[in-house]
Amino acid sequence: MLKVEENQGVTCLEGNVVSSGIKLGTVYAFLVDGMLVDTGPQIIESEFTSYLLEQSFELVTLTHSHEDHSGNAPWIQKTKQVPIYIHPLGVEICAQASPYPKYRQLTWGVREKFRAIPLGETIQTQTRQWRVIYTPGHAEDHVSLLDEGTGRLFSGDLFVTPRTKVIMDSESIPVIMNSIRTLLKYGFESMFCCHAGYIPNGKEMLIKKLEYLENLYGEVENLYKKGLSIEEIKHKLFPKDYPIIRFSSGEWDSLHIISSIAAHFELEKDKSCSFPETL
Ligand SMILES: [Zn+2]
């Protein structure tokens, strides 16, 4: 059963994925002003669809194409016939049936293909206009939605936790940091996160996350400049062996935190080397 809660005019739909009594994850979708933000994972389709069948909404916006957010979009397209929007980079991914590894299909379900419409710079709901802010780093097609009038932000998977310990190999810490900096330029207070739910002091929590990542960045930089390898830095900063690392065959790993930061130093180095040194 979905847990349904109302916060700041947003209906928060909380779904829990449980396997053999073990909770694998919590995923939220949100209903606001006639718009559904994300759709939940297919593996608990019946929980989301039995609730959504009774609700009226005119459009769906996906914060990104990951299967725990887009899982029930094909059902919505068939049943509700409402437009489903995503960042232009996500359209092609939605047109493919479950383009992700087996362990993710077992965890989140099998998402069929569906037709998504590219988002513009804003999205209009019944009474509000939402600013679509491009916030890559977690996924290339990731956006956040902001209602500047009421200070409500949908942050997709940009936040999740203030102290990130493992990421996917497709993620980049420096790009995530830049996306957080982009969001912090705007006025907002509350945040709706797809895994942590309603966070009343959202801006404060995003600042906390940025501070944690900036510290981490500095630590990696120091060790890297001392000549330590990426593996050695991982063992120093993240010695714990998280079960997800093995379960995902390394798609998730603390190592990707270090390597994405190191790749950023190399990029900066290349930039500064591109000037002629003959002067
Ligand atoms: Zn995601």
What are its keywords?
279 residues, alpha/beta, seven-stranded mixed sheet, 15 strands, globular, binds zinc ion
Please give the radius of gyration in angstroms: 20 Å
Overall pLDDT, averaged? 95
Read across the widest sheet, the strand sequence of neighbours is: 1-2-3-4-5-6-7
Sequence stretches where pLDDT stays below 50 over 5 or more residues: none
Strand content: 15-25%
> How many DSSP helices?
10
Classify the secondary structure makeup into a structural class: alpha/beta
> What are the bound molecules?
zinc ion
What's the helical proportion of residues?
Answer: 25-40%
Global geometry = globular
- Order of helical and strand elements: EEEEHEHHEHHEEEEEEHEEHHHEH
Largest sheet: 7 strands, mixed
Q: Kindly, what is the distance between the CA atoms of the first and last residues, rounded to a whole number of angstroms?
A: 70 Å
Number of strands: 15
Q: What is shown here, in short?
A:
The chain is of the alpha/beta class and 279 residues long. The protein has helices at residues 45-52, 67-70, 73-80, 91-94, 102-108, 173-184, 202-225, 230-237, 243-247, 255-273; strands at 3-7, 10-19, 22-32, 35-37, 59-61, 84-86, 117-118, 122-124, 129-134, 143-147, 152-156, 167-168, 190-193, 197-199, 252-253. The protein binds zinc ion.
Characterization of this structure:
This protein is α/β, with parallel strands linked by helices. Helix content is 35%, strand content 24%. The protein is built from 10 helices and 15 strands. The protein has a 7-stranded mixed sheet with strand order 1-2-3-4-5-6-7, with no helix packed on it. Strands 8-9-10-11-13-14 form a 6-stranded mixed sheet. Helix 6 runs antiparallel to helix 7, helix 7 (202-225) crosses helix 10 and helix 8 (230-237) crosses helix 10. The protein starts with a strand and ends in a 6-residue tail after the last helix. The mean pLDDT is 95. The structure holds zinc ion (ZN).
